[in-house]
Amino acid sequence: MKRILTTALVAGLGVMAMAQSPSFIPTNTNIRLGFVYPTEDAVRDFTGNMFGLGVDIDTNFRLVSFGHGFLSLDYYTSSLDGNKGRVLSAMYNQRMPLSSMDGRNTYYFVGAGITNVDFTTSKTVFGLRGGVGMSLSEKTYGELVYNFTEKVDGVRASNFGVYLGFKF
Question: Is the pTM of this model over 0.90?
Answer without folding.
Answer: no
